[in-house]
Amino acid sequence: MEIRKQYKSVAPTFAIRAYRPSASRFGWRAAIVAQFGGKTKFQSLYYLFEVVYNMDMSVELKPSETIEDLQCNGLRIIQSREEYRFTTDAVLLANFCRDMRGKFCVELCAGSGVISLLLSVKKHPKRIVAVELQSRLCDMMQRSVELNGLRDLIEVRCDDLKNAHAFVRDADVVVCNPPYRRVGSGERQLRPNIALCRHELATTLADVVSSAARILNNKGSFYLVHQSDRLCEIVSECNGNGLAVKEILPVCPSPDKQPNLVLVRAVKGGAADCKLRSPLYITDGNGYTEQVSAWYGSK
Fold it and tell me: How many domains does the structure of the chain reveal?
């Protein structure tokens, strides 16, 4: 349906499920469009409904912003039609992390904060520092933190991740969903703010790994999601920064497709042994697989 398209992102090889608002929200929207002949004819009514629905007395919403339900323990997040919107990759990474209860976590390239929000309720860390370069995304993330009453748990820092060692150290866990594409590869976004999230314009894979290694404590864990065709580079960068890759989880769009993503766990000062996990399939021909469906919930 046309109405749903604005709540989905599309990956290069398969459809990505972004967190959707409740079914009742879609029901009301569909009813309005169906009853009055479509969005074009009654655009003013449609957008009035959009604004009223997203009013929240505890947080300021700016033009183009909406509050979306993360469908996880009541968590909500502010998203903007003008900014980079999170995708399934972030959800997979948040669920791949483990052994975080009571620990100090740092998220690099935090974007609008979806990973930090999910980690706060799924993994129960003691403290999270979310580092993001773009001020507009930081502002949205800070308001999402306040919207969810997590100000005492999540600290938002607007800074370059290469400076993270100046304000955080001895982290137990570092998590990162970085820009995937090298400069000059893939289709370049015309909007600079979106391009920064997709291409290595301000930070590279080498920057991410070296920054993580610098702020981790000994035996601390580094969790990363990235394109599968850069796995060799990931392992090389980790080895060069004293991070031993301990676990690799390939992610496939479906059982008949090759992996297009990898989830990686590395340990600072760890021994040289690594487990290659069986692939995680996003869909199985009948929709999302059981594991992916569970990861989208409260588990």
Answer: 1
